[in-house]
Amino acid sequence: MSVQMLEDNELLKLYINGNEESLVALLQRHKRKLFSSILVVVKDKSLAEDIFQDTFIKVIQTLKRGQYNEEGKFLPWVLRIARNLIIDHYRRLKKMPPAPVYRNEEGEEMDIFSCIAAEDEDFEQKQQKNSLKRHIKDLVGSLPNDQREVVMMRMYYDMSFKEIADVTNVSINTSLGRMRYALINLKRMMEEKNVAVF
Q: SS3 for 70?
């Protein structure tokens, strides 16, 4: 029987047992769907190609270490790896380049943008804002995984709901619904913990 006729999980078993051709067959079978799923989110062909290659490097490494245990759900597993690599890419973008830094009168390093925004605020207002940011970050961390993921992608990585839907492999309505529930939960938790918005 030709390897093209085998199921994904059969091809994986063959590859794990040393048959390189079976991985080529898996790649051929799923490359179009995987690549288009990446491209629709990143909107840049060369970046999509990089993430596509990184995804398969990670797949091969995981298989070679014997850590694959998805029981025949190969494509969703690969899509999840690609999604995590895309999120990592957005994270790195947010961290670079750093904002210009200068030292204030107290010798503290401050980035130029926060200084411009905070020029007219007194020390107490700044402290309240920092405290609020810490509280909100803690509250976001305690949301259910799917809600936390949408909040992070939307608020911290500035992704559209269409991009979020594509990365998380759900409909736009589902990602909007998760955001809505996240906001409801955040509001409830803020009230319970008596966190005031200034």
A: coil
Instruction: Tell me the average pLDDT across 161-188.
Output: 87
Domain with CATH 1.10.1740.10 in the chain: 3-95
Q: Could you tell me which CATH class the domain 3-95 is placed in?
A: mainly alpha
pLDDT in tens, 85-127: 988 887 777 654 444 444 555 666 554 444 434 444 455 566 6
CATH class of 121-192: mainly alpha
What stretch(es) of the chain map to CATH 1.10.10.10?
Answer: 121-192
Please spell the DSSP secondary structure of 90-131, one letter per residue: HHHHHH-SPPPEEE-TTS-EEEHHHHHHHTT--HHHHHHHHH
Lookup: tokens for 76: 């969703």
- Is the separation of the CB atoms in 63 and 77 below 8 Å? no
Give the pTM: 0.52
